[in-house]
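INTERNAL AUDIT FORM
Audit reference: QA-55
Scope: verify that the stored structure record matches its stored sequence.
Auditor: D.O.
Record contents follow.
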Amino acid sequence: MTERRIERDAMGEVEVDAARLWGAQTQRSIANFPIGVARFRFTQPVIRALGLVKQAAAQANAELGVLDAAKAALIVRAAQDVVDGTLDAEFPLVVFQTGSGTQTNMNANEVIANRAIQLAGGAVGSKAPVHPNDDVNCGQSSNDAFPAVMHVAIVEEARRDLYPAVEALQRTFARKAEAFAALVMIGRTHLQDATPVTLGQVLGGYASQLDDALAAIRTAERALHELALGGTAVGTGLNAHPAFGATVARRLAEATGVPFAPARDKFAALSAHDAVVTFSATLRTLAGALMKIANDVRLYASGPRAGIGEIVIPDNEPGSSIMPGKVNPTQPEALTMVAAQVFGNDATVAFAGSQGHFQLNVMKPVMLHNVLESIGLLADACRSFDERCAQGIEPQRERIAAHLASSLMLVTALNPHIGYENAAKIAQKAHRDGSTLREAALALGLVSGEDFDRWVDAAAMTRP
């Protein structure tokens, strides 16, 4: 049988696996919230953020003379183990717990306290010389510590994972746009033929969409730099040093390179998470851009013989269990499913953000989980789509030329010369007779062959 030790909290005694560093409150949460255990555990970015916040808090409290320097040094060392990921197994809790994140905050307090006790040569669970509440949680409440963890984890993951992935995909489309800047193709609106564009313009539009979406995300990130720390339970700062919020934010900024600062209004920072809601909305905008791009790519690549077929994309794997030789646009399809998931995650975040009552929002953990999941999914999907699809996009020049030559909408170039109604007559006759625009124009006597050839220039129609 597993060796057990007795831990105590305000509600009494609890048995804990003696090999574990967590304590009574973490153990109670394991028993009380068996919800989505296999799928909804907090991941390393959250654990790292917990370590960073607790480490910075100990440093701030020592600097302000609130916490004994020796205790603070032990906490800092123990928290570094959390930051480094060596204690990840000591964080077993799930997203679906109390809405303030109290259990996860206490999980961190208990693990860091017990690790500090180990470093001091003491007995795990003794709460001496480091106490999880009095020392590790000094100057904090779960109500202000967990929102800080939310912001730190989201910003760090966005910078580490998402931004580079989107930038790489954007650069791929920008390079492709330059390579195919002069390749004229038919444009399409309402899924119908329209006036010409270049393939470079099409791909450049994708690059610009991604650039704009990423700029919006970076702008939204700025609001996450404000931290609730120093507000404690309801925003008043009770039991925290008046300079605690500013000092711990400075310490976190030094540790992460992110310009964290104390929230301008601690009451808003505890009772609402509008910055997280806004950030999630910008992720949804990015997902919408990726959905549009992925759909365009698979439509342009449709066929290979009975579709549009104006571009080819890499053949990555067999596409059918019954049709030999079939290859499907799997990377665009995967990207659209990621976009759909991000839309759903954002709906959860938006609703959860509306659930602040009085001085506290109590859906913090699910907001954090969904934003981090969206970040990870978008980053993974952008990398995969870039490496396995976008980089391999090539034009089918003969197909493009054939579609362009047969397009009725080239007649638009005649509008300034013979008027809209006469140009429409040419297009209608050509469509009805199955003839070319030039043949129809000459048959109707509306333009000469020389004028038609001079005025109907597909390349010129791609410019103002």
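Auditor finding: record pair retrieved intact. The CA atoms of residues 129 and 239 lie 21 Å apart.
Action required: none
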